[in-house]
Amino acid sequence: MNNKKGYDRKFQNPTTLLIVQVIKQYLPDLYDEVERTKERNNKYIRGIISARTGLTLSSKKHRLPNQETIEIEKVKIEISDDLPEKLLAILDSIPEILLTYILHFNKMEKTINELKFQEKNSNDINFLIDNHYSSNGLNESIGYLENLILKIQEQNIIERLFKSSPNIIGEYIHEENKINIYWIGIGIINQITNLRVDELTLITMLHELLHAYTIQGFDIDGNQWDKHILQNINLQITEGFAQIYSDLIIQENFSYLHKTFISLSKRLQPHYKEYKSWLDLNDRNIYEKVRELLLKTRNSRITSYAQFEKLLKSIEKNSKDIVR
Ligand SMILES: [Zn+2]
To answer: Residue 198: is it exposed, middle or buried by C-beta count within 10 angstroms (0-12/13-18/19+)?
Structure first.
C-alpha cells in the first residue's frame, strides 16, 4: 500500500506523471490546499445542505415501538490521487507536447497581456534601458503566442476535457458510499482557466455532497430514493438537483464563489444548466418548491424527463393557484 500523498506518491501512469510534473512547478501546495479546504468546510457544508434540503444522511425511525432502528450512512470524502478513467482516456489521446502546452494555456494568455502592457509603455520606459529597445521583438512574441493559442483552440481539447464531466474534478460513487475529489483534475482546470484551487474544491464538494444528500438522504419519514429507480433516471434530473441547490446555496452562503460557479457552469454540458428553466430562483419560497419537487420526484418514482416536466408544471400551477 502506498501511504504517500500528493506529489510524493509514485505515479505509474505516464500521462498522469507528465501532468503532475508540469502542474507541480506552478502549484507546489496543490494537494495541501485541496485537503485544507476540505477539512475546513466539510462539516459546515453538510450542515447547510441538510438544513436546506431537509434531508439527512442518518435516519432515526422512532415511530415503531420496539423497532427503533438507527440507520447511518456516512458519505466519506476522499482526495483521490487518481484521475477519472474517462478523463484519462481523453488525456492519453493527446500528443505529449500538446498536453504540456494545454497546461501552459493560462500562462500563455497572461504572458500576452504582460507583453502588450510592455509594448504599450515601451516608449516611456526607454530612458531606463538606454533606448536600446525595439518594439519589433515584443510584437513578434505576442504574435507567436497568439497564433499558438489559436492553433491549440482549434484542437478543441479544452472543450473535450470539460465534456468528460461530471468527473473531471469530483465524483459521487453511490455504490461505494463515497465522494472522490480529484486534486490533479483541479490542478488541470486551474491551469487552463485560472479559477482558484480552493474555490474549485468547494464548488466540487458542494455539488457532490448534494448528489449524496439528494440521492441517499433520508426525508422526514425516513424514506430514500429507490436505488432501482436511480439506475434508469434521466441525468438532467439528478444533475439538475445538484446544480439548482448549488446555485442557491452559493448565492446565499458563499456569494464570493458565484462568479467561479457561473464561469465553470458555462463550460459544462447542457444538462447541467437545464435547472435554470425549472423555477424562478428568486422566488421567496424557492427552497420549499425545490424540496417539494425533489420529494415528489423521488416518491413518484419518476425516471424520464418528460414525466419530470409534467410534475414541474403541476408544482408551478399549484403555487400560482395559492397566490390567487
Ligand atoms: Zn454531478
So the answer is: middle
At residue 184, the 3 state secondary structure works out as helix
CA of 117 to the centre of ligand 1 (A): 40
Q: Does residue 178 register a pLDDT over 90? A: yes
In angstroms and rounded to an integer, the radius of gyration of the C-alpha atoms of the chain is 24
Q: What domain range includes position 41? A: 6-84+164-323
Q: Which residues pair with 256 in a beta bridge?
A: none
Could you give the number of structural domains in the chain?
1
Q: Residue 13 above 50 pLDDT?
A: yes
Q: Which residue has the cell 434521466?
A: 234
Ligand 1 centroid–CA 200 distance in Å is 14
Ligand 1 center–CA 166 separation, angstroms = 5
- Ligand 1 centroid–CA 234 distance in Å is 12
3-state class (DSSP) for residue 112: helix
* Spacing, Cα 310 to ligand 1 middle (Å): 23
Residue 296 lies in a domain: yes
pLDDT digit string, tens, across residues 95-147: 899 999 999 988 899 999 999 999 998 888 888 877 666 788 889 999 999 99
Asked if omega into 84 is within 30° of 0 (cis), the reply is no
